Amino acid sequence: xxxxxxxxxxxxxxxxxxxxxxxxxxxxxxxxxxxxxxxxxxxxxxxxxxxxxxxxxxxxxxxxxxxxxxxxxxxxxxxxxxxxxxxxxxxxxxxxxxxxxxxxxxxxxxxxxxxxxxxxxxxxxxxxxxxxxxxxxxxxxxxxxxxxxxxxxxxxxxxxxxxxxxxxxxxxxxxxxxxxxxxxxxxxxxxxxxxxxxxxxxxxxxxxxxxxxxx
Length: 215
Ligand SMILES: CSCCC(=O)C(=O)COP(=O)(O)O
Ligand SMILES: [Zn+2]
Known about the structure:
Blueprint: H1 11-30, E1 40-44, E2 49-53, E3 67-71, H2 87-96, E4 102-106, H3 109-117, E5 123-127, E6 144-150, H4 156-168, E7 175-178, E8 182-187, H5 190-213
Parallel strand pairs: 6-7
Antiparallel strand pairs: 1-2, 1-4, 2-3, 4-8, 5-6, 7-8
Bound molecules: ligand L4RZE5RM and zinc ion.
C-alpha cells in the first residue's frame, strides 16, 4: 500500500503556532503548573499534522526548536526528535473535537491532588460556580460540568479508550483529569485553551477548599 505524500508544511504557520505554544508555556510555567519538565502542549497545523512539544523539554523555556511536527498517528514528520510521550492523547482530542485548535496538559499541585481525591468517584462535578461560565458553551452557574478522572496509565491506548468510552456515552467533555497526573483541556484557540485551563485550575481549588472547610 502506498501513502500519498503530505503537502509541504506551511513554515510560517508552524512558526506562529510554535510561538503561541512557547508563550502559553511561559505563562503556565510562571504559575508553577509545569514542574520538573512535566506537561505538554500542542496546536493544530492542518488536516494531516499538529505541532507538539518535544519530550522532556522544560515547558517554561520553550523556543521553536523545542516543538516538532507529528501526523495524526503521532509519527514524527521531518524530525528525528521524540515527540511528547503523551502525543496520542493530543491527536485523539484533535480527531474527536474538530473545532479544537490547541491543547494544554499541565501538572499543577492542585490538579494532582484533586485527581487523586476524586479518583474513586471517577469524576469532579462543578455546579454553582460563576466561573463555570469561562468554559465555552456554559452561560450560567446553574449548569453542571463534569470532568472525568481517568486511572493513570503509561500505555496511551488505555487512556484513549477511556476518553472514547466517555464520549461514546454521549457525555460532554471539556477537560479530563488523569489520576495522580494532571489535566488535559483544549479550545478553539490557544487563548481559549488558556482560559479553560485557568478556569479548571480555579474551580478545582474551590472544590478542594470546600472539602477542607466542610465539617
Ligand atoms: C516528568 S513528567 C512525566 C511525563 C509527563 O507526564 C509529562 O507530562 C511530560 O512528558 P513529555 O514526554 O511530554 O515531556
Ligand atoms: Zn503528563
